[in-house]
Specification:
- The chain folds into 2 domains: about 55 residues; about 55 residues.
- Helices cover about 80% and strands about 0% of the residues.
- The protein is mainly α.
- Helix 1 runs antiparallel to helix 2 and helix 1 crosses helix 3.
- It is built from 4 helices and no strands.
Length: about 110
């Protein structure tokens, strides 16, 4: 469980950070080196996700989507200095519940 959670967090930071670096390059005119670093981070995200022990690709990536929503709210708060509002937190909480149901529901 700790291993899966750590992979979700590390891969999420790689995905969001990589996208952010490409955003800075293309949208804010920053150095192309940031875009290159962003591309490397996105490739790292793709590799990290394969280390999850859950057997279903679709289920793992759907769960990553929920985790990324939560991490994106936190990224916006910490990096972009955009304070999440009540509805951001409610939406992130709903995503967390959805991810938990998808990954940990008893299945036969």
């Amino acid at each position: 469980m700790v291993h899966a959670f750590a992979l979700f967090i590390i891969a999420g930071i790689a995905e969001i950070g990589g996208g952010y670096l490409i955003w800075l390059w293309l949208r804010e005119g920053k150095s192309a080196y940031l875009g290159l670093a962003g591309g490397i981070a996105l490739a790292l995200y793709g590799v990290l996700a394969t280390f999850q022990s859950f057997p279903s690709f679709g289920r793992v990536y759907a769960a990553y989507g929920g985790v990324f929503i939560i991490l994106s709210v936190l990224w916006g708060w910490g990096v972009d200095r955009k304070t999440p509002d009540f509805f951001d937190w409610i939406g992130a909480g709903i995503c967390l519940v959805g991810v938990s149901v998808m990954l940990f529901a008893p299945r036969s």
